[in-house]
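Think of the structure tokens as a kind of shorthand, similar to the way a musician reads notation: each symbol stands for something richer, in this case the local conformation of the backbone. In the example below we present two proteins back to back. Begin with the first one, reading the sequence and then the tokens, and try to describe in your own words what changes along the chain.
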Amino acid sequence: MQNIKLVIQYDGTRYLGWQRPENDGSRRTVSHKIKEVLNRMTGEDIVLHAGARPGPGVHALAQTASFQTGSSLKPEEFLENLNLYLPRDIAVLTAANAPERFRADLNAVSRTYEYRICTEEIYDVFRMKYEAHCFPAPDVPLMEEAAGLLKGRHDFRYFSSGRKKKGTEKEISDISFVQDSGRITIRITANDFLQRMPEHLFGVLLETGMGLRTPESIRNILDGTEKAGIPAVSKGLLLKDIQY
């Protein structure tokens, strides 16, 4: 058996996320498109493990996935054929043999998401597909104050759209803000994220920066006395990296 590791980039605009529950029956996911090609290539029912599960409309700069196969195809052949037959909004950047026990989901140490915001009065039409728009610009010091309360290990169940009651404690190791020429980029690194947790985190930070809530709201949301509010628009959200 070979254990193949893929690094994948995709535009999530027309997809319902990386993966949906199996009983959902939806074929409009990124993982389904990749599995379709792998199944045809190998004649097997491939099980694809991913380092993260971005939600609907979220993009990925570097998603990591792995699968085991009895096929004799080499990694470079998987790379060539996947890029030949996948839709043009999905690209496999690398394919390589991984150690037998490697799993993209279980061996990930942390994940980083970033949120891109255009703060100019007039939207740049050539970048609007991958940026949220907020004018006037949100107050970065206020967002940084709120971010300080998010860092560390907390129960993030109220920052999630899922119904999961166990395993909701996650640790955010870093939140950074970069301002550059009418744009703000926010990056969050955590050991893991719950379902739609990135959208809720960025949404609350933006609402804070816009003066719609105070930094102290973070404590209230964490203890369940205040709702997280509207998730950030997914088109500005990207899975940036997964660390192993």
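Once you have a description of the first chain, move to the second and do the same.
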Amino acid sequence: MRICLGRHVYGFAAIAFGVVALVWRDFNGWQQARVLGNIPHREILVYLAAALEIFGGIAIQWPRTARAGALALGAIYLIFALFWTPLIAEKPQIYDRWANFFEQFSLVSAALMVYASTIHDHSAGKLARWGYIGFGICVISFTLEQLFYLSGTAEFVPRWVPPGQMFWAIATTIAFGLAAMALLSGHSALLASRLLTAMIIGFGLLVWLPAPFAAPHKLMSWAGNAQNLAIAGSAWIVTDFLRQSRPG
């Protein structure tokens, strides 16, 4: 089983993450080490994380090195996800912390699927399936995140897009929910994954791509593009997995 285009998009996003971290010498809003406190020489952690992301993003582009790339990216994204667990334990009623965990975990799930595509034994199918289910659970979280912060979601929608910001906030929340149900039930899962990928790419084009032009010196303008592209690449990996798993 080969996972193609999604893997390349996912890898390019990882390279973008690494470059952003190096330029700003800090983690972005999703990849932050606040739980570690004011540790000395924090920049060293930033450089190590950036190096892993750039290495993983490059390595995952080629079949011979894709396994190493998937391991590197899966490891760093898992660490970033785990950074959120103490914050979740501290205030579990704040869903934003759960949402950040699952955004990172969606990238871990994609790395697991890419890794599974590079091995050729009985465990490959099981690992890929676990990655697929993990991503489906993350889509449930995307739904809840938008639902709980609907007004904030609406603010991301460009004002010029008809028929209105709240319309698209509600519509995309429903779309996330339907995609989660389709992926986890298996009914129309391939169609759902394709539409989900297209929707996330649409977020990138309409919401995040213009951000660096409006605020080029703002870290989140660049980090948001990398994060959205990484999640789009993850959804695309799911699409590739489903497409190549179909009989015939």
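Compare your description with these statements about the second chain. Residues 5-245 form one domain.
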